[in-house]
């Protein structure tokens, strides 16, 4: 009997040790980062657009260049710049260009870039800390452009891009005039739990905060903002649950933040509520 108890004790210790080692490996190897940013079929041969544009390649590291484009209104000088952090799979030759059309018509210029290993950008997207540094690096370079520096600058983030947008707003609040978020979430662990549930792994969701690094704590970052903020989220969002958007709003400075419900698909409000969406940007100019 003593030998049996000893065996089970050793077995239990072994299992716990292996579990701890596995959790530490997944966390410090940033395995989840690779999963978050991995997108297949995002490459394209050449960028083109029916809109006026200026193309950039930002050298952010040895042998790493990030592709970005500044879309410009065709018939007039820009009234302001929108720095857009797009959703996970939205490269610059996707339908993203169509979402810019109503903004360009109103006189905005819109900038967006592709993260490492996405679209025409080189490198690998395997570390959120590196991608955060890239985002701030590109933002700073764009903010210094002559055609941007003397005009209002608004940051816009959708879905995954909302994490980057909120981070940028916190780190560069003195350089921007407003923040617009749609269909985003408060942290990577928060959205990780959602996908655990979708994969019928609800009972294991407790492990998500242990294996995922929270490099973009949007609920904490938004508390520091005093600039105008607008958050929209659809109750019908089947990718990022509505309550995650509400959580960001609840953490925000209510005196400068507005929340509006939309009845739309994931990050499609620019199409279904075009007039209000565009007016939200216009109102931030005043």
TrEMBL record:
Name of the protein this chain belongs to: Serine aminopeptidase S33 domain-containing protein
Serine aminopeptidase S33 domain boundaries: 80-187
Transmembrane segments: 7-28
Superkingdom of this protein's organism: Bacteria
NADP in keyword set: no
Record has Cytoplasm as a keyword: no
Keywords tagged on the record: Membrane, Transmembrane, Transmembrane helix
Pfam families named among the record's database cross-references: Hydrolase_4
């Amino acid at each position: 009997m003593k030998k049996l108890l000893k065996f089970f004790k050793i077995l239990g210790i072994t299992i716990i040790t292996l579990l701890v080692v596995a959790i530490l490996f997944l966390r410090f190897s940033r395995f989840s980062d690779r999963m978050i940013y991995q997108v297949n079929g995002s490459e394209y041969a050449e960028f083109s657009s029916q809109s006026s544009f200026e193309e950039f390649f930002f050298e952010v590291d040895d042998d790493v260049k990030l592709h970005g484009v500044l879309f410009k209104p065709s018939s007039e000088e820009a009234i302001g710049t929108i720095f857009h952090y797009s959703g996970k799979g939205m490269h610059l030759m996707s339908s993203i260009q169509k979402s810019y059309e109503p903004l360009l018509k109103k006189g905005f210029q819109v900038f967006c870039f592709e993260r490492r290993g996405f679209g025409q950008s080189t490198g690998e997207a395997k570390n959120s800390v590196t991608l955060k540094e890239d985002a701030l690096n590109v933002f700073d370079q764009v903010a210094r452009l002559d055609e941007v520096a003397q005009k209002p600058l608004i940051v816009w983030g959708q879905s995954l891009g909302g994490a980057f947008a909120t981070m940028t707003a916190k780190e560069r609040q003195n350089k921007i005039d407003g923040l617009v978020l749609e269909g985003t979430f408060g942290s990577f662990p928060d959205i990780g739990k959602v996908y655990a549930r979708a994969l019928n792994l609800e009972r294991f969701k407790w492990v998500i905060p242990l294996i995922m690094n929270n490099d973009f704590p949007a609920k904490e970052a938004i508390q520091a903002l005093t600039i105008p903020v607008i958050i929209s989220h659809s109750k019908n969002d089947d990718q990022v649950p509505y309550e995650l958007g509400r959580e960001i709003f609840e953490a925000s400075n209510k005196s400068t933040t507005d929340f509006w419900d939309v009845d739309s698909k994931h990050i499609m409000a620019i199409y279904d509520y075009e007039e209000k969406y565009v007016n939200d940007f216009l109102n931030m100019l005043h």
